[in-house]
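Researcher: I'm preparing a figure for a lab meeting and need a structural model of a single chain. I don't have an experimental structure, so a prediction will have to do for now. The sequence is pasted below. Please return the structure as tokens so I can convert it later.
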Amino acid sequence: MNELKLKKLLEQFFIEDIGDGDLSSSAIFGEKESGEAIILAKEDGIFSGGKIIAAGFQLLEHDAEITLYKQDGEPIHKGEKIAAVQASVRTILSCERVILNLIQRMSGIATAVYSAVKQLDSEHTKITDTRKTVPGLRMLDKYAVRCGGGKNHRFGLYDAIMIKDNHIDFCGSITEAVKRARSAAGHNVKIEVEIETEEQLMEAIEAKADIIMFDNRSPEEVKRFAALTPDSIITEASGGIHWDELPLYGKTGVGYISLGYLTHSVKALDISLYMKNTEKVKEEAQ
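Model: Understood. Here is the structure written out token by token.
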């Protein structure tokens, strides 16, 4: 994760939430009143967001002390401590909501990816994400995917060429689209082509695409298309693939399965922050 970008993101998020000041905390607590808080898991899952906790609190208070009990990618269980924070009470309370929102989302993504990888149960086929992320959160979403054991697809429109159905329709053919893309792109840029039919597959192979995506195809079709594709071309299945279908797709021989729901329909993992040694901490830890 790019830590410079992370700090910029956190600055924007805190400005949105805190604005000109946290009225509640400033009215109740003095600048020098300090405290310690515990971040607790309230359900089982895979943790992602340690960098958020450290960078977030220290952005508002550079000498805030952070102790991480869990590392990114590690399992967490209900009642377990994830981190401890020592800082001014104002800082802890002003940072709480933004940091929890982010690590709950990231841990939810990591947990969903971990579940998908286990369900797929394949050494050959890998789970990857898509660009279906919330604007502004893509770096964090894709980092969370890696924490869950998945792979990252392209980060944006700028780091790979992906020729989809609308590109092909406007251009006239896969052959012409790949030709134009190849002549304009640098030699390090890969070209992916989305196909739906065997005829399109053959055209994409003939055009020497680097990656071919089988879009909205059944496991049987994916298996047939993968067998027809030379080993030199990376294959990917995408579109409407549900969690319970993953074992079937894992037996097709396709290289990657991209799943939009990992990031666009994420269920946040339940994580909370409590002041240390409160009854709530004791109850949750039981």
